[in-house]
Amino acid sequence: MATFTQSRSSTVTSLSNVNKRAYEKLLEMQNKDYNISNLYLEVTKAVQKVFNEIYRVDSDNNIIGIKLVYANPERSVAKQIQEDNIILPIISFDQGISNSDQKRGRYSSVLVHEKYWDEDKQRAVRLLSLYPAPVSIVYKIHIWAKYAEDLDQILEQINLMFNPSLNIPNKFYEATQAFMTDEVDNTDYPYTDGSDRMLRRTVELRVETYLPSPKVLVTSTGKIEYTPHSEIDITTL
Length: 237
Description:
By secondary structure, this protein is an alpha+beta fold. Helix content is 20%, strand content 39%. The chain has four helices and 13 strands. Strands 4-5-8-11-10-9 form a six-stranded mixed beta sheet. Strands 1-6-7-12-13 form a five-stranded antiparallel beta sheet, with helices on one face. The chain has a two-stranded antiparallel sheet with strand order 2-3. It starts with a strand and ends in a 10-residue tail after the last strand.
């Protein structure tokens, strides 16, 4: 099975400049069952990798990593903290809604030409695809802390990531931009009698990406070959 790694450049052309048979094949493949990329899973893994590197500095200047968990809804995290005696601070995150973002879209007749390196054949090849569908995915980052100092350290690191956006490379797109859209104080005031102090802050992110379209390889002889999403990996560049 061939393995492709993407080059740094791609071009977009109109239908009049490309092989019509390739275009018709792509339209046929667009709604097939095998056109599942698992993009949402890949983006979630990329978000997790970024926020798994946050830390705090204690009073002795020791650097301590912050535990990160994927959990939804928030109540399950609060219950876990209380019942399992988890040491604060920790960070949890979950995936929210996703929306089609037509402002970043193109007409369906637009084709994308991308250059890839075929590891098996040791040569560059050209893949064609329909312009991918733009989507925005919302993630919520929940910070749970006992002390304001820890909460401030975590928020400082998160804010420094966005200038104004954060690049979250994943398997399909090296340039995937995330934007911080909101910050909410979810601390319950006042504290109930006998309860432990718990500060909570939620940061909302919007990740702008694209749903990958099927790709075909047009050989030098004019043969059209289907290329599964699993064979394409740009993260090795």
